[in-house]
Write a structure and sequence with these properties.
The structure is a homodimer.
Chain A: E1 10-14, H1 21-30, E2 37-39, E3 42-44, E4 58-60, H2 63-71, E5 75-81, E6 84-89, H3 90-98, E7 102-107, H4 109-118, E8 123-128, H5 132-142, H6 147-160, E9 169-172, H7 176-190, H8 198-208
Parallel strand pairs in A: 1-7, 1-8, 2-7, 3-4, 8-9
Antiparallel strand pairs in A: 3-6, 5-6
Helix pairs in contact in A: 1-7, 5-6
Chain lengths: 209, 209
Amino acid sequence: MDQVKHTGKLFIISGPSGAGKGTICSRLLADSDPERMCLSVSMTTRAPREGEEHGVHYYFVTKEEFQETIASGGFLEHAEVYGNCYGTPREKVLEKLAAGTDVVLEIDIQGALSVKKAYPDGIFIFILPPSMSILRKRLTGRGTDSMEVIDMRLSKTLEELSYIEEYDYVVVNGELEEAVSRVKAITIAEHSRVTENIHELIERYKEEI
Amino acid sequence: MDQVKHTGKLFIISGPSGAGKGTICSRLLADSDPERMCLSVSMTTRAPREGEEHGVHYYFVTKEEFQETIASGGFLEHAEVYGNCYGTPREKVLEKLAAGTDVVLEIDIQGALSVKKAYPDGIFIFILPPSMSILRKRLTGRGTDSMEVIDMRLSKTLEELSYIEEYDYVVVNGELEEAVSRVKAITIAEHSRVTENIHELIERYKEEI
């Protein structure tokens, strides 16, 4: 007999930019069977870039299609970034979960809070940099943002820290390997939780006698 | 900076006899730093056997001392087995937890339910055999019990299954390695839980700026 839980779980990997949530998600997915765990694919109105495939990297849709999906409550969350719309399609996620596949959603803190309202059964993991000074170093090292933008990001991060309470777990990403193995441990532990479907398991044992 | 939680946690490894909780506990302890995790040492009125050390295998006490400890509420649980008394000394466990060491307590289901009343913050893990027929085989294989006793144990196990709902986790012990790594994952995940002490962590980040 397999371990108890058979339906998939939604793991929300979230945190401030520079915390390393993207790297952690890549590592998580690279080490796992695609039948067991997959990354949530977002819907977007932006044009595909070279090499990007519909349904793999994004679902590419028109602005009208995106608006219709919003109107029908079809997103777990959605946001506009630099004039392009991005959203997490509810149906696609629920299909995967029903098929027994875990879904990993990498998302910023505001997005995670929206997902929590739409899907409170998700497992919310906050990825935290080891310190604010290390976060500053990481953001500076990227070389993509001016000092002003970085200062803005850091003060936003401080504000957003109070939302940790909305999460189930917090993982400090100092050592990448350590952080990845902690997130993996969380995904394993969550599948051993005693939940409502425990009755089914108990019945199976009773029928055997 | 270290991961969030600094105080130890009490992990209760419980389940029917023959489920393999003893083997799982030994493996868990063998692989871990004694500063990080230790086994709970019981108090007993039975005489020490060859090689058994006071404070290591058991705390050996007189019947009077045991009774006094009961009277002063000094046990997380206690029971009499074949005329000898056994109990989990509350103070010893709390000292370890306060020092930041996790404590692992291997105990039967009735004992676990008593511990839950005395220490609801414990993490309760139910170890389940993969099936009743495999449990029967394991108990028969031990060669220590008559068929009658085994039948009694099996029907007791079926009754006790309904207590799974009182537990936090259930781990099916089909493959030992798989079960051990699941229990390990649970101990790691539990140390990443967002708990009350998250405020302290947030304050540390805010002070840094």
